[in-house]
Amino acid sequence: MVRTQKRRIIAAEGTNMTPTEEMNGSGNLMDFLDEPIPDVGTYEDFHTIDWLREKSRDTDRHRKITSKSKESIWEFIKSLLDAWSGWVVMLLIGLLSGTLAGVIDLAVDWMTDLKEGVCLSAFWYSHEQCCWTSNETTFDDRDKCPQWQKWSELMTGHTQGGGAYVLNYFLYVLWALFFSFLAVSLVRVFAPYACGSGIPEIKTILSGFIIRGYLGKWTLLIKTVTLVLAVSSGLSLGKEGPLVHVACCCGNLFSSLFSKYSKNEGKRREVLSAAAAAGVSVAFGAPIGGVLFSLEEVSYYFPLKTLWRSFFAALVAAFTLRSINPFGNSRLVLFYVEYHTPWYMAELVPFILLGVFGGLWGTLFIRGNIAWCRRRKTTWLGRYPVLEVMAVTAITAILAFPNPYTRRSTSELISELFNDCGALESSQLCDYVNDPNMTRPVDDIPDRPAGAGVYAALWQLALALVFKIVITIFTFGMKIPSGLFIPSMAVGAIAGRIVGIAVEQMAYHHHDWIIFKNWCRPGADCVTPGLYAMVGAAACLGGVTRMTVSLVVIMFELTGGLEYIVPLMAAAVTSKWVADAFGKEGIYEAHIQLNGYPFLDVKDEFTHRTLATDVMRPRRGEPPLAVLTQEGTTVEDVEALIKDTDYNGFPVVVSRESERLIGFVQRRDLTLAIKSARQKQDGVVSNSVVYFTEDAPQLPASNPQPLKLRRILNLSPFTVTDHTPMETVVDIFRKLGLRQCLTCGLPFTWACCLRLLGIITKKDVLRHMAQMMNQDPESIMFN
Amino acid sequence: MVRTQKRRIIAAEGTNMTPTEEMNGSGNLMDFLDEPIPDVGTYEDFHTIDWLREKSRDTDRHRKITSKSKESIWEFIKSLLDAWSGWVVMLLIGLLSGTLAGVIDLAVDWMTDLKEGVCLSAFWYSHEQCCWTSNETTFDDRDKCPQWQKWSELMTGHTQGGGAYVLNYFLYVLWALFFSFLAVSLVRVFAPYACGSGIPEIKTILSGFIIRGYLGKWTLLIKTVTLVLAVSSGLSLGKEGPLVHVACCCGNLFSSLFSKYSKNEGKRREVLSAAAAAGVSVAFGAPIGGVLFSLEEVSYYFPLKTLWRSFFAALVAAFTLRSINPFGNSRLVLFYVEYHTPWYMAELVPFILLGVFGGLWGTLFIRGNIAWCRRRKTTWLGRYPVLEVMAVTAITAILAFPNPYTRRSTSELISELFNDCGALESSQLCDYVNDPNMTRPVDDIPDRPAGAGVYAALWQLALALVFKIVITIFTFGMKIPSGLFIPSMAVGAIAGRIVGIAVEQMAYHHHDWIIFKNWCRPGADCVTPGLYAMVGAAACLGGVTRMTVSLVVIMFELTGGLEYIVPLMAAAVTSKWVADAFGKEGIYEAHIQLNGYPFLDVKDEFTHRTLATDVMRPRRGEPPLAVLTQEGTTVEDVEALIKDTDYNGFPVVVSRESERLIGFVQRRDLTLAIKSARQKQDGVVSNSVVYFTEDAPQLPASNPQPLKLRRILNLSPFTVTDHTPMETVVDIFRKLGLRQCLTCGLPFTWACCLRLLGIITKKDVLRHMAQMMNQDPESIMFN
User: Fold this and answer.
1) Which residue of A233, A672, A708, B466 shows the fewest CB atoms closer than 10 Å?
2) Which residues, numbered 716 to 735 in chain B, qualify as contacts with chain A under a Cβ-Cβ cut-off of 8 Å?
């Protein structure tokens, strides 16, 4: 018995038919010979994909290739190429995104410095590169060299004095306005999707949603260019988030080269998940952190196979970036730090306080930013994006210039704040009173009293903190590429450094206090303010994005030692808890909600006690479900149904009276099939009968030729019974990636069993969830 | 309309009833007041759990706690405690597994050295600790000190000469036999589950299977003790795999303290996933690698919440172990290495060759080991486990003693092979011919010609390689705790070091060859044989376990630099590809299959073109499905049905003729409910009528009291239509963690629509998959 069945299955496999085809084929051979209808099985813009269908299409494709590969050498080679295409795509993504990241870094460096001055030996050199090539520079004056001239020096010959200052100030603002004007204009004219950080949209796309052009070639090009302009303009934004978008555009670009990925929306998303990992990998130089970020924050379905490939793409990207060496230090990471002092148990208190600060900042930022973005969406503000960008740039530049900590680029600022004060550090932050008799080695400088420079720096940092907090809220979400990793980290790093210096000075002046007595003797190096800055940065980033493991791993890759993981983790946990207490969603989820994307978050727990029957359509009092019958409908009727309704699919039933389900047909497939039949098939006219059964209905000879559509019918639509708890339904939608699900009734009445009662779409599920959380269900806009 | 529905839902939520209860309650209040039947909803030993049911039970519990928490302060505190219990459990797991790992390390160290000699100053000191405390030791003779005496010295006063050698040899073998005898006896008498590495079983348990006692207290105790004995006996096995089992036992122990975890098999598995991460974290000192190992290799469902907690547990465990400091070097990692030379592109060729070797070794090991284990299972061999262990121990000890590379513990061997030859290295492997005029700094020793010691070492290593390859195949799977990480790594490290020395000498003697010309000038330090050993170890481990990302990350954490990730990755990828070409499954999957556990691998792709109707039971010609009717069956009938069949559950239909489904009832629940009713409910006798409807059937007054069982009825059993492709069914089983799924028919005939046609259980799915892969379907033994 078992053997017979086996043979039957193998026989079926030999024929290269899908189960549906096989069944159809047995009934009507002609139908099997028909060529496929073009575009059937694709999706419309702003629609949800059906993961189950994509997966089964990929399996069909794979089966076809496997069975063909035994036929000839050429087919075998083709099957090998197909198997390898995943790795090739990853390699290409890694190479291109690494290169782009390097180019962006170099361009940003140059253009940021262009706001201050120009290199006389070669105008395309940044300040640092200019003075590198100069031989006259000593180590102490690394950034002073004759080739580099400030604008005032070049134009008037003065470097000092009020006039020069005003001229430099004026030109700084002018350059900033010029850059941001260029950026916003390019975005508006060529690629409106290039604005923002892109991560909310990428999350939505990866969860199975179509936004055509969001990851297109134009977006890639314009986003790369405008990202450089936006960062160079000195606005309070970072390039890390947009780099993820850029990498995903690369992923989309290369996946369109291979039909395996371009023709399957599910497989394409595997590539995009890996590309997101590559993006974070080059943004921070943290390949493992990038993979975990993609896994934790961005991706929806992450098969283990993809994990391995993502890691490969992330590594290739990181090494490509390193071989370009934009920071000129052969370091992979963005902020390389090395601390020489361990941390002590008692320091956990300030670390946890920084975590609380990070959580509060996260809440403030999300609430403020969302309120402002909502205002932008709903009021006149949204109609003048260029003006808004120019205004914010002007305010930023005018307020930023006088303060040395806001004038420079934010990543330089963070880098300085993270750094430990070595003996050679010339920064104002390291202006401690030195003991003239000190003969300790360089990496073991004891705590010292703060000098005037440190006190001045503290004031300036405090002002910078307030400025950054306020301006970032208004900057994120404007119509230019803008990431929030760097501004968030800057806020945290400033706060952390201030706390760090305070603790250090307290420990120095009061080392007889009980809390310091045990671990901080005089002359010991016990507090590292740079570590506080790093912990603060992690806390603030965590508060805004609600990342957890990936955040800690990225930070771990920056420091390269497990030593400091505990402080980072304590701060990240605290920050997440504090922020979660005020609202569960991170900034990306908040923006997804603001835009009404249909995103079913895997992290949300649905705990309400509703049943499928409460959610399904039609509700009581609504018109009955729009269904098709398996035979007897004419082409005209179907077209009318398509025109009158906006449903994305129709259940097919035996007859309108019995409502017995035989399958489900997608609206798009139906439209395309009828269009194609009208063009190609002779005799199909408006009053041709459409039938979904295996055999054509018996019709009088005078009738026009009927149209068989069984091929586009999904014979195994997903069904749940109407008493299934919604938590199960939500789980099924999430895990299987359904687009819709039919609801059938169990026979509580003595009517026919398992009658088709209704339908639940992803939109219905999301609206129900919004309603349960006392939110406006109409905010979910797409299907 | 929307508002009304909302209010209705909220009203329902206020009553603390599950949907089922709510519905039942409305019909019959008495039933709602009934106390719950004990043990309903639990599982029998060697049975599969239903993840959907566990999840919905947890949501119910959570809902109850949330609504109660508003009632009083005490309930609020209880709800807080409940929310925190996850973190508490993680902390406890981390602390205990870190401590146990430290204790095991110390004990193994001492007992391994006990085979050679004893410390006179304190017999509980290992060789290293003994000579540490000795003041007379110079740096060069770290391991020679008067306090440490070999057995021959202690007993006869001789250290040199044939007699002393024979005596030491004899005692070495004797101790080994004694240790292994103790180990196997303890396992046999007290905890048969303590044998093996435990990872295959843990994988199965995490995928949703019950093996009572596998993670129990006795297993924990005995496994810890016997692991020390087994490793000390010098057998070719490691402690890394069993440490994962030990950590999971800790996880099970602590999860039984909290009802949230102890009463829910799904939640308990979340804890166990995290515990597995903690186990790997302490085994290698690699917390991030541990989390990824748990994610990639061990866990089945890994919610993101668990990822964060796993990381916490892994970190706590790693820091606990470090504070115990068993290796005496304050290092977190097992094999700490630091290389000073970068690798060159051309070296990728030998690295990839090592990858090929690793893949071949993996295939050889898996095939050989499985063949031997199958023989043990099926022949007389399995009846004499003690004898087998003793025989293998004797052979191992006798063959291992003469070779210095097999005599010492395997982890010491790996450690030495990984190490770069510094200036202070006294090992035989570093016996190079030194240039007397050398004045280079210590970390930049140029390549040198090999001395006699290196050539001797090469021969000994080659012999050790053959020995390890053969003996490991026979050792893994015996009735003692045995891991295969360390033996696999040893095989790879030996092969790698041999290749490394060969390349190094080739480069030294032929640096004018084209391949060396570009990167290996005379006097340069261009080849690091230790790196080759590490790459080989990664390749061999990858070939056996088929780990990918976690393998590379663990190795990355050992070296602590991204520099060497590319060689490791190249070797790991090659090894996986080569091994996969010979068979897709890793050693753990092979052992799962050998034992017939019902494990539905997430990594396997099901690509066959079968339909649900091909798999469901009953098949054509088999007796019809055993069903219950919603009323009219007596208690006696039900008991007879339970006795006559061994199905795990029964569909409940309206009547035997219509076969219209109303729900599904689990066998165990049915048994328990009837037993409890017979004990507690008066009037329930053998000919009481059992009914599953909402209202009691109308019966004559003379009839005994009927028994209402609607409460144990699952009203929303999972159904698929019989034309659903099996790949979708497999996907649903995997992603939703179903135990069984009912098959309904769509109306191809004009019979009643959606008739219940059959049932598919996880076992059926697995048997079908085995059959499709030309394996014996009867090998799947459990349900």
Assistant:
1) B466
2) 716-717, 719-721, 723-725, 727-728, 731-732, 735
Residue A686, domain CATH:
3.10.580.20
CA distance to A49, A641, B576, B754, B755, per residue, from A761 (Å): 12, 19, 41, 22, 25
**Structural domain range at position A632:** 612-779
Whole-angstrom distance, CA of residue A425 vs CA of residue B518: 39
In our burial notation (b when 16+ CB lie closer than 10 A, e otherwise), range A720-754 reads bbbbbbbbbbbbbbbbbbbbbbbbbbbbeeeebbb
CB A543 within 8 A of CB A575: yes
SS3 of A434-446: the string is CCCCCCCCCCCCC
Q: Higher pLDDT residue, B311 or A617?
A: B311
Q: Is the pLDDT of residue A165 over 50?
A: yes
Q: Does B276 lie in the same domain as B194?
A: yes
Q: Does the pLDDT at position A544 exceed 60?
A: yes
The H or E element spanning position B118 is: strand B117-119
Contacts of B358 (CB under 8 A, 6+ apart): B492, B536, B538, B539, B540, B541, B542, B543, B571, B574, B575, B578, B579
Q: How far apart are the C-alpha atoms of A782 and A288, rounded to whole Å?
A: 34
H helix runs in B656-715, sequence order: 667-680
In a domain, B433, yes or no: no
Same domain, B634 and B528: no
From chain A, the residues in CB contact with B548 under 8 A are 307-308, 311
End-to-end CA distance of chain A: 47
Say if residues B493 and B418 touch (Cβ distance below 8 Å): yes
Name the most confidently modeled range: B230-244, B498-512, B628-642: B230-244
User: B568 and B419, same structural domain?
Assistant: yes
Nearest by CB: A549 against B307, B560, B716: B307
Mean pLDDT lowest for which of A39-43, A154-158, A560-564, B549-553?
A560-564
Q: Given A1, A609, A752, which is nearest B19 (Cβ)?
A: A609
Split into its structural domains, chain B has a count of 3
- Report the C-alpha gap between B714 and B41 in whole angstroms: 11
**Per-residue pLDDT band at B19 (split at 50, 70, 90):** very low
Write down the pLDDT at residue B332: 63
Residues B105 and B235 in one domain: yes
The domain that holds B160 is classified in CATH as 1.10.3080.10
Asked whether residue B658 falls in the same domain as residue B766, the answer is yes
- A718-776 per-position pLDDT tens digit: 877 777 888 888 888 888 888 888 877 654 333 334 456 667 777 777 777 777 777 77
In this predicted model, what pLDDT tens digit does every residue of B343-371 receive, in sequence order?
Answer: 888 888 999 999 999 999 999 999 999 99
Q: Does A554 touch chain B (CB under 8 A)?
A: no
Mutation to test the A interface, candidates B562, B723, B776, most A Cβ within 10 Å: B562
Is residue A168 domain-resident?
A: no
Which is more confident, A340 or B241? B241
Q: Are residues B133 and B184 in the same domain?
A: yes
* A490 and A628 share one domain: no
Q: Which of residues 307-326 of B touch A (CB under 8 A)?
A: 307-308, 311-312, 315, 318-319
Coil/strand/helix, residue A741: strand
Q: Is the pLDDT of residue B422 over 80?
A: no
Residue A563 Cα to chain centre, angstroms: 30
- Indicate if the pLDDT at residue B753 is higher than 60: no
Mean pLDDT to the nearest integer, B538-555: 91
Dihedral sign (CA A552, B289, B303, B612): positive
Residue B381 amino acid letter: L
Complex ipTM tops 0.85: no
Instruction: Note the pTM of the prediction, 2 decimals.
Output: 0.86
- For residue range B493-538, what is the model confidence (pLDDT) as tens digits? 999 999 999 998 888 888 778 777 777 777 777 888 889 999 999 9
